[in-house]
Backbone:
């Protein structure tokens, strides 16, 4: 019986430590891995409040940040798996990726670009000028009908503040 009590205490201590470490890791807001395409570095993610907060904090180090939203019936929702193509002033595609999460940070050189976002047949196109040393933010929102058709790809939670 004495060994059983010590075992329970060790298990309880271990679980408490695991919960504390998990909470500490969650609040640290670790960024998803960065990737490179055609010499352009980017980070895609933003799942959950802590990762989204970490990405918003890191956004200042990227000339362009894009957030993808879907307007739900009751609240604004995250949207992921959006195809993004960025074209330069000569209309050449310089960046082409499927965003893995609702936030995409892109390290583009200064210039004039067009950002094309496609999701389940819905298209948005936005012109953006990137100035050297500046940061631009884009928010791309899709209509309700796209949300209704693709609930599996929409995260059922409100956007984090």
Residues:
């Amino acid at each position: 019986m004495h060994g059983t009590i010590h075992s329970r205490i060790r298990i309880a201590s271990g679980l408490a430590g695991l919960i504390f470490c998990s909470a500490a890791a969650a609040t640290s807001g670790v960024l998803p891995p960065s990737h490179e395409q055609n010499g352009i570095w980017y980070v895609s993610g933003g799942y959950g409040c802590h990762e989204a907060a970490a990405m918003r904090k890191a956004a200042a180090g990227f000339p362009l940040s894009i957030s993808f939203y879907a307007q739900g019936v009751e609240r604004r929702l995250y949207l992921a798996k959006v195809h993004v193509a960025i074209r330069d002033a000569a209309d050449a595609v310089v960046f082409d990726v499927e965003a893995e999460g609702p936030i995409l940070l892109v390290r583009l050189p200064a210039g004039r670009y067009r950002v094309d976002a496609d999701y389940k047949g819905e298209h948005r196109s936005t012109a953006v000028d990137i100035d050297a040393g500046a940061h631009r933010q884009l928010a791309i929102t899709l209509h309700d009908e796209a949300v209704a058709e693709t609930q599996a790809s929409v995260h059922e939670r409100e956007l984090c503040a």
About this structure: The chain has a mean pLDDT of 78. The first strand starts at residue 34 and ends at 37.
